[in-house]
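Exercise 3.2. Students should predict the tertiary structure of the chain below and write it as C-alpha cells, then compare their answer with the key that follows.

Predict this chain's 3D structure.
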Amino acid sequence: MADLRMELCEPVFRMEYRVIYGDTDAGGLVYNANYLRFMEMGRTEMMRSHGLPYSEMEQEGIILPVTECYLRYKASGRYDDMISIATSLAEVTRHTLRFHYRISRQHEGREQLLVKGFTKHACTDRQGRLMPFPDSVMAQISRVRPLEKS
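Answer key:
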C-alpha cells in the first residue's frame, strides 16, 4: 500500500498561478487532472530555484518519470482564482525523489486548501532503465534534502 503522508517539509517553495479558463470544466471548476499540471509547475520551478533545472538534467541523460501519485481533493478551484502552489522535496534515495504539495487559494480572508498530494519520480536513462542519480546531481539534490538511508 502506498505511503500517503503528504506533510510539507522545509524548504518549501511557493508560487502563485492564476487559473485560466482552459484549466476549468463546463461548470467553471478546475478540471481534476489539471492539479497534476499545477504540481508539475511547482516542482519544476522549485528545482530551478535550487539550481537544478530539468533541462540540465535531461542534457545529462536523466529523465524523471512519475512512478506514483496521489491527490486528495478538499475544495474546488475556480476560473480566475489566484492559487498558491506549495512544494517540498520530501524524500530522496539514490534512485527516486518524492515531492509533496499543497494547493490553496485565499477565500473569505483565509487560506482554503484545495488539494494536497505527492508525486514520486524514478531516475531513468532515455531508454527508461532505472539508474542512480549521478554524484554531481545527487550533491545538488542533497543540498535541498539529504539522501535517505536505505
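Discussion points: The chain has three helices and five strands. The mean pLDDT is 93.
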